[in-house]
Amino acid sequence: MVDRNTGDRTYIEAVRTAGGEAVWTETRPDGLKLAAVEKAGAHPGVLHRQVDTFRPNGLTTQVSAYNAPTPNSLKSGKKPLITMAELKAIATDPVWLAAR
Questions:
Q1: What is the pTM (predicted TM-score) of this model?
Q2: Are 10 and 67 in contact (CB under 8 A)?
Q3: What is the torsion angle, in degrees rounded to the nearest 10, for the CA atoms of residue 57, residue 53, residue 17 and residue 8?
Q4: Beta-bridge mates of residue 40
Q5: Of the residues 5, 37, 72, 76, which has the maximum number of CB atoms within 10 A of its CB?
Q6: What is the pLDDT of residues 51-72, one digit of tens each?
Q7: What gap in Å lies between CA 5 and CA 75, rounded to an integer?
Q8: d(CA 85, CA 29)
Q9: Residues whose CB falls within 8 Å of the CB of residue 45, separated by 6 or more in sequence, listed in order
Q10: Strands in the chain per DSSP E
Q11: Are 64 and 48 in contact (CB under 8 A)?
Q12: Cα 71 to the chain's mean position, in Å?
């Protein structure tokens, strides 16, 4: 993702898997468990935002964003161009249940 005004770039990654572990910080009424973290990236100033979900049927998703063009790049901007709330919306979207 690139901000057309500033040129800042954000790397976004979404993965759908079965299984995995995370520290669940929220459990929703439908049984979906969610873990959201923001941590330092591989280089100074790089922020890594990540949301993991686990559904009762065993499906997990992981959505990450960095304020860098790739996970191992130097930073591009002060923060990722996508918010934690937006990452949560992507990770919890029911479309993952239909993906194959």
A1: 0.78
A2: yes
A3: 160
A4: 47
A5: 76
A6: 999 999 888 889 999 999 888 8
A7: 17
A8: 18
A9: 67, 74, 75, 78
A10: 11-18, 26-27, 33-40, 47-54, 59-66
A11: yes
A12: 12
Name residue 65's beta-bridge partners. 12, 49
Q: What is the pLDDT of residue 18?
A: 47
Q: Give the phi and the psi of residue 83 in degrees, each rounded to 5.
A: -80, 165
* 23, amino acid identity: V
Tens of pLDDT, residues 10-55: 777 765 554 455 578 899 999 999 999 899 999 999 999 999 999 9
Q: For tokens 């029911």, what's the residue?
A: 94
For 78, residues 6+ apart whose C-beta sits below 8 A from its C-beta are 45, 67
Residue 34 near residue 83, CB atoms below 8 Å: no
Instruction: Name residue, tokens 């995370």.
Output: 22
CA distance 26 to 16: 19
